[in-house]
């Protein structure tokens, strides 16, 4: 919106509990940070899509997902990560 475009630098951090998946409209967002596991690939794609949308003056977008370190062997972790990808 025009109001959002004029105030794009007014907010440094927006906390959206659940909103970032669907219906969140802030194309100026440059970094999405999530905590924990996601239920589906679609959910991840929707969240990543929120910050990777083009916007005037935006040159960088980043997605970070913080996860607990698994209590598993390296081979089990590698297999699980590859299965997700």
Report on this model:
The protein contains 3 helices and 2 strands; from the N terminus they run αβαβα. The longest helix has 12 residues, at 41-52. Helix 2 links the parallel strand 1 and strand 2. It has a two-stranded parallel ribbon. It has one domain. The protein has 85 residues and is an alpha+beta fold. This is Helicase. It comes from Streptococcus agalactiae. InterPro entries: P-loop_NTPase.
Short summary of the structure?
The chain has helices at 2-6, 41-52, 74-84; strands at 31-35, 62-66. It has 85 residues and is of the alpha+beta class.
Number of strands: 2
Number of helices: 3
**Roughly how much helix do the residues carry, as a percent range?**
25-40%
Query: Judging from the principal axes of the Cα atoms, what is the shape?
Result: elongated
Question: Mean pLDDT, nearest integer?
Answer: 79
> How many independent structural domains?
1
- Could you give the order of strands across the largest sheet? 1-2
Distance between the termini: 35 Å
The chain-level structural class is alpha+beta
Computed Rg: 16 Å
Q: Return the string of H and E elements.
A: HEHEH
Low-confidence stretches: none
Main sheet: strands, sense, barrel: 2 strands, parallel
Strand content: 5-15%
């Amino acid at each position: 919106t025009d109001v959002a475009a004029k105030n794009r630098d007014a907010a440094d951090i927006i906390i959206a509990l659940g909103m970032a998946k669907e219906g969140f409209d802030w194309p100026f967002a440059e970094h999405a940070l999530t905590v924990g596991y996601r239920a589906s690939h679609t959910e991840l794609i929707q969240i990543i899509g929120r910050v990777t949308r083009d916007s005037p003056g935006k040159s960088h977008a980043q997605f970070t997902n913080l996860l607990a370190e698994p209590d598993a062997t390296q081979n089990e972790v590698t297999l699980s990560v590859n299965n997700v990808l």
